Structures are given as C-alpha cells and as structure tokens.
Amino acid sequence: MIDLHSHVLHGLDDGARSLEESVEIARAAVADGIEVLAATPHVREDYPTTPEEMEAAADEVRAELERAGVPLDLRTGGEVALDALDDLGPDALRRFGLGGNPSYLLVECPYYGWPLDLPDRLFRLRLAGITPVFAHPERNGEVQADPDRLEGLVESGTLVQVTAASLDGRLGRSSREAGLRLVERGLAQLIASDAHHPGVRAIGMSAAVEAVGDEELAAWLTSAVPRAILDDGPLPPRPEGKPRRRGWFGLGR
Predict the structure, then answer these.
(1) Each residue's pLDDT tens digit, 113-164
(2) Domain 2-231, CATH number (from 1.10.1660.10, 3.30.70.2740, 3.40.50.720, 3.20.20.140)
(3) What single DSSP character describes residue 49?
C-alpha cells in the first residue's frame, strides 16, 4: 500500500515528537503493509512549517530509517491549510507537492464550517497546474450532513482523500458513514492514514481496506491512485465495486 498523508516528521507539528517516534511510526507503517509513506506536516498558522524545515526533517528521518533497517520509501509533502494557500509562493507550493510531485498538493479540509470561497481557492490551484487533494472532508460536519456537496469539487478536478480511521469506525459513526458514502458515490479517490503517532492501530490502512470490503476497489484507493500521483501518470479508472456496508457493531446489512 501507499500512504500519502502522515505526520511522521518530528518536531514540526502535532505528530511525531522525536526522531525515535518518527522511526516507530515508520515501523508501524511497514507492519501494516505500507511500502511508501508521504510525510505531510501541517502548514498553517499554528504550525508554519517551511519547505526547508520539511525537507531537512525528511532527510534526517530517511537517514535514521536506513540506519535502523526500516524498509520504507519516505516521500515529502505538506498538508496545507486553505488560509495558508495565499501566503505561499509558487515555489513553496510546489516544494510541498504531495509525495514529491509538484503537480499535486494535499489541502486540509477545515473541521468546522464550509468557507464560501473554498471552490474558488481549489480552482485557482488547478489554474496554476496543481491538482488539489482534499484531505479528510468526511470529518467535516457540513460534509457529514451532505456528502454530495463534494460532487462539484470532484467534477472540477479535485481529488478527495478519506482517512483510514474514518472508514473502520475509529473516528466515530458520523465520519464512518460520510467516508463510506464518499467511496460509494465515487467521490473519494484515496485512503490515507493521517498517522500522528506510532502503532499499527494509529496507521490502520489494512483495517480500512477490510472496511471497504471490495478488494479491487480498496487496491485502487490505497495503491493504484497513489502510485499514479507519485509517478505523475494518468489516474487509473475506478473499479465498479462498492464498499460492503456493515452495521455499527460489524454486522452485515
């Protein structure tokens, strides 16, 4: 699997707190079946990460993973808040490119509210030749109330990433139902961990694959689409499968 959203870089945001914890997150990712992990620190007012800080931290973690014998391909990136888009110049935006690809950018969906200019901000990225990847919208209350509000964004070229812990219920019923609805409706193209802490449970990509239920669709969400982003290739067509819906306590329905 390929995980294009994590907070594995230590000391930059609310993720890993030390180099040792960065390595433990990486070990957990490998144990969960992840081969490529994008380090995407927050870029926003409370965590004003610079491209230089991100790149230096990634180099340090890569060196430590090699020393520790952890077989993980660590890529760079940033999780950029909507408000920070206007503060970053073209060079910075591209250096924060998702997985090291300057043509894609992970953009953080707000947890509360729905900014009226959100579509315009994402459209401006598209005009600049950058495809927005909208992170974890299923955790936003407005999307939970109406997941179909993302339809226009997806039709205009934005990709949507749902969090693994949403799909398997670790983030609660509302996030789970919204996340599964987005996958069912073809409004989600990637699953990622958004891992902040060590532990396979904190990563949880394999649990999300199980929650999706359809093997081909899960592979598209966790491997085929992320690989196309890394390789800057055409996005593969979505399989016809749908998630196998389950009740809150794991009973089929």
Answers:
(1) 999 999 999 999 999 999 999 999 999 999 999 999 999 999 999 999 999 9
(2) 3.20.20.140
(3) -
